[in-house]
Amino acid sequence: MFRGILEGMRQTLRSFFEKPVTIQYPEQKRPVRARFKGRHVLKRYENGLEKCIGCALCAAACPADAIFVEAAENTDERRFSPGERYASTYEINMLRCIYCGFCEDACPTEAIVLGDNYELSFMDRAASIYTKDMLLEPVPAVDKLTPQSTPPGVFTRSVPEMKDPED
Amino acid sequence: MAVKMVNLTIDNHPVSVPAGTLVVDAAKKVGIEIPVFCYHPKMDPVGMCRLCLVEIGRPMVDRATNQPVLEADGSPKISFGPKLETACTTPVSEGMVVLTENDKVSEARKDILEFILTSHPLDCPVCDKGGECPLQNLTMRFGPGESRFLFDEKMRLAKQVPLGELILLDRERCIQCARCVRFQKEIVDDPVIGFSQRGRALEIVTFSDPGFDSIFSGNTTDICPVGALTTSDFRFGARPWEMNAAASLCTHCPVGCNLTINVRREARAGGRDVIKRIMPRQNESVNEIWICDKGRFAYHFTESEQRLTEPMMRKGSELVAVSWDEALQAAASRLKKAGEKTITLAGGRLSNEDLFNLCQLTSGLGGQYWMHGTMGGGDLLAQVGVGQGTNLGEFGPGSAILVVASDLHEEAPVWWLRVKQAAERGATLIVASARPTRLDRFAKCVIRYAYGEEVETVTSLVPEYKTDVSEAICAGIQGILGAENLVVFFGSDGLGLEGTTALAAACMELLVKTNHFGRANNGLIAVWPNANTQGAFELGYRPAADLASRLAEAQVAYIAAADPAGDDPALAEALRKTGFIIVQELFMTPTARMADLVLPAQAFTEREGTFVSGERRVQRYYPAVRPISGPRPDFQIAAQIAAQLGFSLEERLASLVFQRLSEAMPDFAGLTYQQLAMVEEQWPLIGRHDLYFGGTGYDNHQGLGVQLKPAAQRLEPLNLPDVPELPPLQAPEGAFLVVPITCLYDRGQTLLPTSLLHERMEKPAIYVHPKLATRVGLEDKQSFQLVLNGISTLVQVIFDENAPEGAALLPRSVGVPIQGPALAQKEIVSG
Ligand code: SF4
Ligand code: SF4
Ligand code: SF4
Ligand code: SF4
Ligand code: FES
User: Ligand 5 center to residue B676 CA distance, Å?
Assistant: First the structure.
């Protein structure tokens, strides 16, 4: 019986000198793993144009029916994305989403990416619906905001000529 | 005449089909899929795409003895050709053996698809066809996993090329199957698009001005096996898998084309159901798999912002919104007071259920009910309308069709198409009209008369009256005498109520005297202005010649789906004298503005009901969208008013109203909604499961409708009316004759909200022959004040060599009221 008590005290004593594992969230945050799947981000190209072309393939792939997309037509005067089509409405219901990443796989332009953000909390159900402006990646500079006015004949293709994904 | 049957085997299935059947069709009939791109079951094969390659063997015949060579086991020896053959161009032959599933065939399909894809863009994600695309589907099923062709050598061609306002072309996506070009040329006789250049540079071009000038253009987007042709209306509207489909009917003309309405709930519409597109629904006895562009695009009125949403009552000089309870009470108390001084006026846009409840309500009060419109003769169709089982698709040699006073191409496009095709199959087509129409080209004989001679012309076709008639009429008589079947279409080209009523009687006489009535494929068809004018006639509504005085004397006028004040200034004048006006409508029409009580009605897309087509086919339509809040179905409003007055009418469901209707109306006896929803297998087998064969049109699971038997077919005695004579039309000095004609794209209430069609809509203009213009002193393109029945309107003159020299043509519903032939003057502007 004594031995048991001594063993316990030894453990306790050892822990005194170990580095603590507790993190002072939310002041401190632990970096997420490389393949972590958090809240989605809608990506942009370097020139600020949106990668999303409003094809709704993510919505079709989504097992939770969490995504809703409405498309509209780009013009050179008011261009959101390369090619003919862009998403005029893009919504994800974060309460429905099961963070499976199928939407990411389905996307032909790598526009929707599950990011690092896991801080999702809402006061009501309506707030769980993230709209396009909440999901879109911020722009580096004001002149990169969409819609942009672009020269004619440059952005004619919706789907970029990508190499096959390596991984 | 028995058709010779041919026996063959396809993939070891024994098949027996009529001689002349193509191998693709034979395979389809037994459920074996042979993929096709260029072949379409409604068109002649061309063998252009080679996707349908199959291996075909035929029994060997010993040349010396002419006997089949037998195998050791006694079965005929089959010799297979060295090459694969196209199943779409090869007719079946006795003893043929077709293999569609071996390595050779799969390899060929793979290669053809690889070729087709060499220059196909990576557009599937943004392409409107994506998700219902035969190229996508067949590539997934039969194609190679990857392409060996070089990406840099892809053809780059123009995208988003508008062929007109309605149809967009993407040249890169075209796989050069020529279905669209052939459809326009062979099926609808509008060869306005074609191929230009050759080889890989081949592209579709339009040669018409305006571009793609055809009223059937939308159908090419259904049969294009890729997303090369899409409509600008549906552009990026939704992905096909996101939409719900509801069966419906076209409400724009009496053909009664079967439709499917595709609907999606949308955020940008505030969560409302939005109609994304209208597609044809197969009914081989009505519209086959086609619809016209008006039916396809002119649906926007149902979701217009201008729709009425609240009941309104006149308080002081203003119409103010009131609750339904108040509105119904007000209507009921007024109607009660008016009693037999009530007059109900209904339009041909209402369903049978609405019309039934309205007439029950009115007769309960002892009042009178009338139809609003300027075309008569519908009562005769109850006697000698086309017989049950009539199908224009069966017309060929030995049948005859007479079209009188109707420009079918403009008034009922799909009938035009079916009549044209019947004539091409060998039916005798006789066209009698006052001016050239698009049907003349296909007619055996064209009878040209002057406006006003319609009745005379038809009467002179009765063989027994044959006096010294013209050559054309002789030919017409010959055609009718020699025909086993005869269908007569009569319209209202240049005619008003009096003229059409007389013409209908003359047509009936012709049919009866030549014994072409009371059985299938024989009888009378009226080219009505509305989808359910026939239904209104069936339920006892008639147009009234003296409507103005009746309205003026009425204490209460209950007007549903009609705009008398907008259509006829004389009626507007009369309504000013009416005691109390109740208007049940979709929109704030001129009549509604005069009303004391306005009741908002639901659009046909929000509810169910039935229509009777011009061929007296009763057909059902189903709710497509959730109704907007406020409006109620017409039959319900009538029933709710009736309830306040103490009679019980069915207000719950259209199907229950129909039950009462079929109990009350002998012609509908025994009909139920279930019967109207019955379907049977139709050829060609098209549908959503194999879009490559028939296109993206919908198959019919919701009902083919039931054709009513006319009295003659029920062997009831006929009551032949006298054929009244029409007074001759002659213009005195200083005036000229103007007659109404019907144009497809008018400026009516149900068309105007479709902005896509604005460019093609008729302007307030009259078509005048240059000679007549000189006589009257009008110049081309000139605008002038036209005085018609005392009303002066600014119209434009358009010179038209096709217009007759005796009369100017004024399209109906373009803003210039005209009810029938009328004398017009040019206003002398003083000062
Ligand atoms: S992560 Fe999965 S569940 Fe969430 S939106 Fe994407 S596909 Fe849907
Ligand atoms: S995120 Fe990607 S898959 Fe989803 S609509 Fe945009 S482009 Fe299409
Ligand atoms: S546009 Fe369509 S239907 Fe016409 S040829 Fe090209 S692929 Fe065929
Ligand atoms: S032919 Fe008549 S019924 Fe058919 S789609 Fe056109 S307007 Fe509608
Ligand atoms: S060659 Fe037969 S379908 Fe095209």
Answer: 37
Conformational region of residue B108, where left means phi above 0, alpha means psi within -120 to 50, and beta covers everything else: alpha
Angstroms from B141 CA to nearest CA on chain A = 20
A45-137: CATH number:
3.30.70.3270
Sign of the torsion angle spanned by Cα atoms B140, B144, B146, B149: negative
B312-373+540-662 under CATH 3.10.20.30, yes or no: no
Q: Is the separation of the CB atoms in B221 and B167 below 8 Å?
A: yes
pLDDT above 50: residue B200? yes
Q: Of ligand 4's atoms, which has the minimum distance to the CA of residue B253?
A: 2
> How far off is chain A from B221, nearest CA to CA, in Å?
19
Peptide bond between residue A20 and the one before it cis (omega within 30 degrees of 0): no
Q: How far apart are CA B325 and CA B302, in angstroms?
A: 25
Protein residues with CB under 6 Å of any ligand 2 atom: A 52-58, 69, 87, 106-107, 109, 111-112; B 125
- Residue identified by tokens 């989403």 is A97
Start-end of CATH 3.30.70.20 domains in chain B: 113-231
In sequence order, the 6+-apart residues with CB closer than 8 A to the CB of B624 are B246, B248, B261, B263, B273, B275, B605, B606
The topology (CATH level 3) of B378-535 is Dimethylsulfoxide Reductase; domain 2 (3.40.228)
B130 and A55: CB-CB below 8 Å? Answer: yes
B113-231 carries CATH number 3.90.1150.30: no
Rounded CA separation B198/B207 (Å): 17
Q: Compare CB distances from B151 to A60, A109, A161 and report the shortest one's residue.
A: A161
Sequence-ordered alpha helix ranges (H) in A19-142: 57-61, 102-106, 132-135
- Kindly report the CATH number that applies to the domain delimited by B5-101: 3.10.20.740
Specify the DSSP element, H or E, that contains B361: helix B352-365
Which distant-in-sequence residues (6+ apart) come within 8 Å of A37 by Cβ?
Answer: A99, A100, A101, A114
Residue B333 belongs to what H/E stretch?
helix B324-338
B365-387 in b/e form (b: 16+ CB < 10 A) is bebbbbbbbbbbbbbbbbbbbbb
- Residues B280 and B264: beta-carbon distance below 8 Å: no
Identify which of A71, A91, A159 has the shortest CB distance to residue B236.
Answer: A71
**Segment (H or E) for B265:** strand B258-265
Does A54 contact B at CB distance below 8 Å? yes
Ligand 4 binding pocket (C-beta < 6 A) is B 250, 252-253, 255-257, 287, 291-292, 294-295, 412-414
Separation CA B708–CA B685 (nearest Å): 26
Question: What is the 3-state secondary structure of B657-709?
Answer: HHHHHHHHCHHHCCCCHHHHCCCCCCCCCCCCCCHHHHCCCECCCCCCCEECC
Residue B207 CA to ligand 3 centre (angstroms): 16
Nearest Cα to Cα of residue B454 among B399, B498, B409, B512: B498
**pLDDT tens-place string over residues B365-416:** 999 999 999 999 999 999 999 999 999 999 999 999 999 999 999 999 999 9
Which residues have C-beta atoms less than 6 Å from ligand 5? B 36-39, 47-52, 86, 88
CATH 2.40.40.20 in chain B, residues?
Answer: 736-826
ipTM of the complex: 0.89
| Residue-wise pLDDT tens digits, B565-613 | 999 999 999 999 999 999 999 999 999 999 999 999 999 999 999 999 9
How far away, in angstroms, is B744 Cα from ligand 3 center?
A: 27
Q: Distance (Å, rounded) from C-alpha B532 to C-alpha B527?
A: 11
Give the DSSP H/E element, type plus range, for residue A7. helix A2-17
Element (H, E) at B162: strand B161-162
Give residue-wise pLDDT tens across range B39-90: 999 999 999 999 999 999 999 998 888 888 999 888 899 999 999 999 999 9
What lies within 8 Å, CB to CB, of B58 at 6+ separation is B78, B79, B93, B95, B96, B97
